Hints:
Residues 1-19 form the signal peptide. The chain has one domain. It contains four helices and six strands, in the order αββααββαββ. The chain has helices at residues 2-19, 65-74, 78-82, 119-136; strands at 43-48, 51-56, 96-99, 103-107, 144-148, 153-157.
Amino acid sequence: MIRSRAVLVAVASLVAALAGCGVQPTDVLGAGEPATGLPQGMRVYFASDSGLRGVARPGVEINDLQVAIKLLLGGPNETELHSGLSTLLRDDQKLHATSDRGQVTVELPDTPVETSPGIFTGQVVCTLARAESLLHGTRPDEVQVTLVGPNRTVGPYRCPQFLTG
């Protein structure tokens, strides 16, 4: 009898606790249409512990690829630095980019290019792919970027090759 009474008290306490948690039932709430497509506006890609990370540069008008290169060479802002972002490009790095509707060529006259692409290449490829998409309407994930250094030409690369998770 004592055992069944203890079980009954425990069950009653559990029911009371669950019923009194303060969460009220609600109807289904409309949240509008789901997000689709790619984010709008200019993004610059920097290095992080987990790979490349794109950050927005709202209000920046891209009228040629050199604007994007200047943003990239400017590096992360103070807040981005504190959140662990960095750049593998030097602020005096020489880069010149040209494009032909989704095909970008980047000349790096003073920088030997890597045969196996890493974060440096990813920063350049993804930033210029975004800029090219804003200039000519090509999807940034379809833009192809070729790097021409003093030692070799590599690519073409697409930004998704450098993005993890």
